[in-house]
Amino acid sequence: MSDSSSLFALSPLPATFGAVVADVRLAELQDDAFGRLYDLWLGYGLLIFPGQHLGKEQQIAFARRFGALEVEFGELSNLLPDGGVRSASPGQEDDMMRAIKGNMGWHQDSTFMPVQAKGAVFSAIATPDTGGETGFADMEAAYAALPEAKQRMLEGLTAGHSLAYSQSRLGFGKETDSKSMFAYGFDVGDAPRRPLVKVHPETGRKSLAIGRHAFGIDGFDDEESWAFLEALREAACQPPRIWAHQWRPGDVVVWDNRRLLHRSQPWDMRQPRVMWHTRIAGDPHMDGGLGGIGSPSTRPQEAAGEA
Q1: pTM of the prediction?
Q2: pLDDT tens-digit profile of 132-146?
Q3: Any idea where the domains of the chain sit in the sequence?
């Protein structure tokens, strides 16, 4: 890592992961420098690039250097097309606001799809005065901190992953517009099953795979599974394994979705927050699920919309 870091003005975060990279223009990065940046990304899990102000095509091009894309471009914004602010009042949220509120729970992207995402590039276009941070949590360090007996117990367990399930826990039903970008992930038939401990396909290191989309652990009933996962997430997402990035317009981050959980933080939703998201596709052979376990939509707590 020392050889790679010598090319960049690198400031590690006061956490078990992550670094700020200054004095680099991502839109002008040469191939040899990107190769070293990629090594840093694998080592740190999260890289933060202040003041980049990438255009849409520049962001897509940068993300493509990490691999094929699962989602080329999406905007997460509490602003309407006419510039007005979307309603955040309970029961009055549109598809966008339901997605934004769901994203406030710790999760990994696309674990509810047959292949989970490799990573993501995220950039800030408009940010609130306070709040609206993106939190990250290091599941590799969380696994390493567990007693060996707990590690062995978790390595024998799997869970299903479902966006319909995790949104239903918040009282949100399936989006009705099948053409909406937010219908993505709701039309998966059988929820993919994944181990609670994931082996990173590039580093070989182990991490917890316990984001909010997980449900139905083997041998647990529904509520036992939920309580177990909540307790595990709560214990895992503690200092020094967490970091919340306070956004400024123009910031860009890229994170390793196979290692980190992430979530958005609350803010005064009368203020705009506009973010651009590009999702890097995972490897079907290394990031695929273990087979479906049936749709969770028939589970009693989902039908009741418990949050």
Answers
A1: 0.91
A2: 999 999 999 999 999
A3: 2-282+298-303
